[in-house]
Amino acid sequence: MPRWHSRSRLFLRDLPPGLAVWLLDAGSLTQRVRRACSGQFRVRVLDQRWARPGRDEARALRLRWDARTWTREVQLLCDGRPWVFARTLIPEKTL
C-alpha cells in the first residue's frame, strides 16, 4: 500500500535533487513530460472503467470506501519508452 506524505520539510529533504519540483508541481504532469521529452511523446491508455478506489485512495480523496470512480490508467511515453504511470480517479458524484 502506498504511503502518502504531506509537503513537510523532512520529506522534501529526503528527495533527490530536482525531484521535488516534479512531485509538487500543481500543473499538468502530462504537459510537463511533453516539454521534457525531446523525442516523440504519446499517451498509452492501459485501462479506463468504473471501479472502486483502493482504501488509501478513498481516504486521500475523502470518499467512502464503496464509492464508484471513473478510473483511468495510462503511461506517458517518450520515444516509445514509459516515463510515467498515471492513475486518475474521478468520483462519480462529481460527473
How does this model look, in words?
By secondary structure, the chain is an alpha+beta fold. It has helices at 9-13, 19-23, 29-36, 55-61; strands at residues 41-51, 69-78, 81-91. A 3-stranded antiparallel sheet has the order 1-2-3, covered by helices on one side. The model has no long low-confidence stretch (mean pLDDT 91).
State the end-to-end distance: 27 Å
Number of helices: 4
Classify the helix fraction into a percent range: 25-40%
Tell me the number of strands.
3
C-alpha Rg, in Å? 15 Å
As residue ranges, the low-confidence spans are none
Q: Label the structural class.
A: alpha+beta
Strand order of the largest sheet: 1-2-3
Shape: flat
Overall pLDDT confidence: 91
Order of helices and strands: HHHEHEE
The main β sheet shows up as:
3 strands, antiparallel
* DSSP strand content: 25-35%
Short description:
The chain is α+β, with helices and mostly antiparallel strands. The protein has four helices and three strands; from the N terminus they run αααβαββ. It has a three-stranded antiparallel beta sheet with strand order 1-2-3, with helices on one face.
